[in-house]
Amino acid sequence: MDLVELLERIRVMVTVKAYPTLSRQYNETVRVAGVRMETERPERVRLFPVPFRDMEQSKQFKKYDITEIDVTGHSRDDRPESRRPVLDSLEVDGHVSSGRSWERRAEWVRPLVADSLCQIKREQEGGRRRTHHHRQRGHAP
């Protein structure tokens, strides 16, 4: 069986919804990024395609919502964090608030901060599945 075909259920805190783009194959889609919460350590995940405006209202999520969704590998994107979502399986299961100066959000994002894009690429090339946010010098995570 092809790895792309294997289904996996993941839990994601959504951190990014990109601006919609037009596509011949998918009409209007967005790329979604988030933090996997079901793994031993937080991991980045990138979901595409997501035809957000065409989704049922109950499945439309906001930034920092917690979602559960079935995913497969992505045949056209070899980045280790990329997954193809099975949209019918999507469930919005909560929200991580910005209370207490964003502490709860930071708990999940801080372990993913890297010192440079070079560090991220080295880890990806080394076969590690964990990816990071890039931290610019002089900015706290």
Explain what this protein looks like in three dimensions:
By secondary structure, this protein is mainly beta. Helices cover 14% and strands 40% of the residues. The chain is built from two helices and eight strands, in the order E-E-E-E-E-E-H-E-H-E. The strands form two sheets. Strands 1-3-4-6-5 form a five-stranded mixed β-barrel. A hairpin with a 3-residue loop joins strand 2 and strand 3.
Topology:
Blueprint: E1 8-17, E2 21-23, E3 27-36, E4 43-50, E5 65-72, E6 82-95, H1 99-109, E7 113-114, H2 117-125, E8 133-134
Parallel strand pairs: 4-6, 7-8
Antiparallel strand pairs: 1-3, 1-5, 2-3, 3-4, 5-6
Point out poorly predicted stretches: 128-141
- How much of the sequence lies in strands comes to 35-45%
Oligomer: single chain
Computed over alpha carbons, the radius of gyration is 15 Å
Q: In order across it, which strands form the biggest sheet?
A: 1-3-4-6-5
User: How widely separated are the two ends?
Assistant: 40 Å
Mean pLDDT: 84
Described by the principal axes of the CA atoms, the overall outline is globular
Helix fraction, binned, reads: 10-25%
Biggest β-sheet, characterized?
Answer: 5 strands, mixed, barrel
Counting DSSP E segments of at least 2 residues, the number of strands comes to: 8
Secondary structural class: mainly beta
Secondary-structure element string: EEEEEEHEHE
Number of helical elements: 2
